[in-house]
Amino acid sequence: MAKVVYNQDINEAVLKDKKIAIIGYGSQGHAHALNLKESGFDVVVGLRKGKSWDQAVEDGVDVKSVAEAAKEADVIMILLPDEYQPKVYNESIKDHLEEGNALVFAHGFNVHFNQIQPPENVDVFLVAPKGPGHLVRRTFEEGAGVPALYGIYQDYTGKAKDIALAYAKGVGAGRAGILQTTFQEETETDLFGEQAVLCGGATSLVKAGFETLVEAGYQPEVAYFECLHELKLIVDLLYEGGLENMRYSISDTAQWGDFVSGPRVIDAGTKARMKDVLTDIQTGKFAKEWLLENQANRPQFTAINNAENNHLIEKVGKELRDLMPFVKQRKMAKKEVASNDNN
Ligand SMILES: NC(=O)C1=CN([C@@H]2O[C@H](COP(=O)(O)OP(=O)(O)OC[C@H]3O[C@@H](n4cnc5c(N)ncnc54)[C@H](OP(=O)(O)O)[C@@H]3O)[C@@H](O)[C@H]2O)C=CC1
Ligand SMILES: CC[C@](O)(C(C)=O)C(=O)O
Ligand SMILES: [Mg+2]
Ligand SMILES: [Mg+2]
Known about the structure:
This protein has 17 helices and nine strands. It is an alpha/beta fold and 343 residues long. Strand 8, helix 8 and strand 9 (178-181) form a beta-alpha-beta unit.
């Protein structure tokens, strides 16, 4: 089994006398800044003036321009959207890196795909939580944590690993488990996971199931509960105890259906297409297309996003969720930020 590191294995003293700049205050940024601050670290947030700036001030964190924050910090964590990182790095961070500083990422994309080339005299590592930033924050507040990967790209000071582990402990990952990786492994597995399983795979599966039922004449509300709402409850059981635990809780009829019909839906063809997706990630094809899409001001991203937001499942879901006050929607802010950036 791979070595998994926990809080008791980590001495955070190596990071306690350093200033940490968190660049960006979105999904990951607000979670890292607040968790690190509450773990007793010296944190400054680097931002442009705007919505996030106002939120960070309201949350009581020290906020400065990106350049000022980068200049005064020893450890600079870049938590901007991947597609904007190279520009901000070149304009406001690069010139403020001092010998022995640490340049940190939560995803290896820009270093692995050669969009950011750090100088040789700094540490470069990643601390990548394996979960959405809003849950990194929420679980921390609940006394738990989200697991994280750390990976060292460049160890100039000889202390990169100790600093990375102390950082991971500060955001709460040491309560759940921290694993070593490389920039290549983190980048490729993270992109694959979000495309094939967690985001692309899951949304496509949910929509296909919903559409199949609605097109067969069943009520959209019934289809919504069956294919989307209940998925969370099933995934909770998978999260808590794996496949066997989920199957323990469902009926034997459902379990038999799982065995005989699941592989008819997700079959060898699906796996072959997953391999194609992985190949496009490994060869840099996906990265190149995403970078070019951004250079063109996201024409396809915008068109698809608009169509997805108008899907019947979204309309039905909103109406049903409004009638379930215990289902709280906590995070539209991030996507509003993203669409503002496109305007
Ligand atoms: N989302 C997640 O849960 C995960 C993300 N990651 C990685 O973490 C990194 C951050 O992702 P994520 O948290 O989703 O990012 P977000 O999209 O949530 O980041 C938005 C933040 O970046 C700020 N920002 C955007 N452009 C600029 C700019 N030009 N100058 C200054 N600030 C800017 C926004 O400020 P404003 O309000 O001014 O627009 C906002 O604070 C990425 O590398 C991602 O791959 C890794 C694991 C999970
Ligand atoms: C699953 C999507 C993710 O990789 C994440 C939350 O871990 C992301 O890039 O947002
Ligand atoms: Mg991820
Ligand atoms: Mg990701």
